[in-house]
Amino acid sequence: MILTVTPNPSLDRTYEVPSLDRGEVVRATGERVDPGGKGVNVSRAVAAAGRRTVAVLPLGGAPGALVADLLDAQGIEVAPVPVAGATRSNIALAETDGVLTKINAPGPELTAAEQELLLDTVRRQSRDADWIACCGSLPRGLAPSWYADLVARAHAAGVRIALDTSGPALLAALRERPDVVKPNAEELAEAVGRPLTTVGDALKAAEELRGSGARAVLASLGADGQLLVDDDGAWFGTARVDAVRSNVGAGDSSLAGFLVAGGRGPRALASAVAHGAAAVRLPGSLMPAPADLDPAAVTVTADVPVDRALREPTS
Q1: Is residue 296 part of a domain?
Q2: What is the spatial distance between Cα 20 and Cα 136, in angstroms, rounded to a whole number?
Q3: pLDDT tens-digit profile of 38-93?
Q4: 230: pLDDT confidence band, cut at 50, 70 and 90?
Q5: pLDDT score of 188
Q6: If you placed Cys at 5, which of 20, 134, 136, 280 could pair as Cys (CB 3.0 to 4.6 Å)?
Q7: Distance CA 284, CA 47 (A)
């Protein structure tokens, strides 16, 4: 079982639009409403892969009730933490050329009692977990050290933990040695404090995160592929994608693919790449099922192309 923790979940509404013209009336050609948040997306992808998952998330108000209903309809077990504030609602505008514009609300502020209930719920639900995936931004009220505390508690209980967050929360958690961290290129650059222009730059940055405590780094480099660095070495994975429809949740789908394949080594990286590539071919934040995957389109190599320029270099 893979347990996911989403401290700041959302109700996500995605509109497909021909183009986004500022100040004009834009008519959508498609619309989806999905439960959102990075950990929620990981649970959705794990469930789509046919594996059991439990989603721990604070929920409040009508949007929170709808998130729970949507997850239940997808066969995902929900361990809700009731909060007084309403769950946030986000909007994404997906243009036909693959450009995505997102408007993310801040979400409710959690009280001290709600924070403790969230940690206690994770503790109770983690007894049967193979992995805990902690994902996304922290809501108002939670200190940057909150994820570090959660990692320490998970390891004390003998459970492996994957962390997908950024900024001070990521840096604070590294000291507790999470089993895997999954930054994207921008988050990786932010963590080391310098831009990344080549795959080699990303590799050096991932090695620095390992030096700071991460046991493994799974870095999403967008269209350039994915990089895995752990105790056994480094691998680089790419996949052929003919057309991008939406990249919402692609990184979350990748993490799910990595974990359902064991969470270690080149086989798990290949699964991560296949899941990420499948996700970008789907509308909105729809998560891929096994039939959507194309393992034959995936290439994984230990010969990391360090001189390859990133098509989307970070600033």
Answers
A1: yes
A2: 27
A3: 999 999 999 999 999 999 999 999 999 999 999 999 889 999 999 999 999 999 89
A4: very high
A5: 97
A6: 134
A7: 17
- Has 252 been annotated as catalytic? yes
Average pLDDT over residues 172-183: 97
Report if residue 312 sits inside a domain. Answer: no
Within 8 A by CB and 6+ apart from 105, the residues are 10, 88, 89, 90
Short-list 212, 254, 207, 255, CA closest to 231 = 207
Chain centroid offset of residue 93 CA: 19
Query: What is the bridge-based pairing of β-strands 160-164 and 131-135?
Result: parallel
Selecting among 69, 164, 252, 303, the annotated active-site residue is 252
In this predicted model, what pLDDT tens digit does every residue of 261-312 receive, in sequence order? 999 999 999 999 999 999 988 876 788 999 999 999 999 999 999 999 999 8
Q: Number of structural domains, the chain? A: 1
Q: Is residue 307 part of a domain?
A: no
Q: Which domain holds residue 28?
A: 2-301
Sheet holding 2-5, edge to edge: 77-82, 53-59, 2-5, 131-135, 160-164, 180-181, 217-220, 226-230, 233-239, 298-301
pLDDT in tens, 254-269: 999 999 999 999 999 9
**Residue 119 to residues 135, 139, 146: CA-CA distances in angstroms?**
14, 14, 9
Distance CA 224, CA 78 (A): 34
Q: What is the pLDDT of residue 202?
A: 97
178 has a pLDDT exceeding 90: yes
- CATH number for the domain spanning 72: value is 3.40.1190.20
Ramachandran class of 37: left when φ > 0, alpha when ψ lies in -120 to 50, beta otherwise: left
Q: Cα(53)–Cα(255) distance, rounded to whole angstroms?
A: 14
